[in-house]
């Protein structure tokens, strides 16, 4: 049986187009037409991937995804939306999207992106990344730094995992954007700095917390300290 896809889309013509195209590509697709139903379907964790519109009745796509991630659901999500501005895409990635495909689109590209996302998700041979006192659970997205344990969002997890795989190496903001967000954003955007600050806050919770192992290199970018 093919991958089980949940499509959350309120426009009938687009839904029919996607249903047929993905079925022809070998996927098994379930369709719901509003955000409230979509969230309930996601929380059942019975699908391999979710294709999510943003402008939905009852509950918008951002809130659907945010609430699902807050409840620990890690099912991959591809946002499919007519909202194409950079800020819209940044918000989508920030709340936990794995990919973002703007409308109008080719269903063949959507099928290809589904396969690409699933390919990135499946190599889960490594269950933990560890550098000194810093450990990152690949399945639960929990990070532990000395006595502090926190749960990271998808993007926070990707960024920290990227730094942890090459401790000591300095990465520019543009390199981080390309490898973590997989999009060439405007180099003037501060999305990397915002994400790093969030990770640092999570690692430094508590009155006896150790300083974060993520180091800012002025004028260059970030690295994970070797002596962690």
Spatial gap, N to C terminus = 45 Å
**Mean of residue pLDDT values:** 86
Number of distinct beta strands: 12
Which overall shape is indicated by the principal axes computed on the Cα atoms? elongated
Largest pleated sheet: 5 strands, parallel
**Rg of Cα set:** 18 Å
Low-confidence stretches: none
Structure notes:
The structure is a single chain. This protein is of the alpha/beta class and 228 residues long. The chain has eight helices and twelve strands. The longest helix has 15 residues. The chain is elongated, with a radius of gyration of 18 Å. 33% of the residues are buried.
Keywords:
alpha/beta; 5-stranded parallel β-sheet; 8 helices
Layout: helices, strands, pairs:
Elements lengths: L3 E5 L3 H13 L3 E5 L2 H9 L5 E4 L8 H10 L6 E5 L4 H9 L4 E4 L4 H15 L6 E4 L2 E4 L4 E4 L2 E4 L2 H11 L6 E2 H9 L9 H13 L10 E4 L3 E4 L4
Parallel strand pairs: 1-2, 1-3, 3-4, 4-5
Antiparallel strand pairs: 6-7, 7-8, 8-9, 10-12, 11-12
């Amino acid at each position: 049986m093919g991958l089980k896809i949940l499509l959350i889309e309120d426009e009938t013509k687009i839904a029919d187009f996607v249903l047929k195209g993905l079925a022809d590509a070998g996927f098994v697709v379930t369709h719901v037409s509003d955000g409230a139903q979509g969230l309930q379907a996601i929380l059942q964790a019975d699908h391999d991937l979710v294709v999510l519109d943003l402008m939905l009745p009852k509950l918008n796509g951002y809130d659907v995804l945010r609430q699902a991630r807050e409840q620990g659901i890690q099912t991959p999500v591809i946002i499919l939306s007519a909202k194409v501005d950079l800020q819209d895409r940044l918000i989508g990635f920030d709340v936990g999207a794995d990919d973002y495909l703007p409308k109008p689109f080719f269903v063949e590209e959507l099928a290809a992106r589904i396969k690409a996302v699933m390919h990135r998700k499946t190599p889960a041979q490594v269950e933990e990344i560890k550098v000194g006192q810093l450990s990152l659970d690949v399945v639960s997205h929990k990070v532990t730094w000395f006595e502090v344990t926190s749960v990271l969002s998808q993007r926070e997890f990707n960024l920290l995992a990227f730094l942890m795989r090459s401790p000591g190496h300095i990465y520019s903001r543009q390199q981080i954007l390309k490898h973590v967000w997989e999009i060439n954003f405007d180099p003037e955007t501060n999305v990397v700095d915002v994400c790093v600050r969030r990770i640092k806050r999570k690692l430094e919770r508590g009155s006896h917390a150790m300083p974060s192992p993520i180091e800012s290199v002025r004028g260059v970018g970030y690295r994970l300290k070797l002596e962690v």
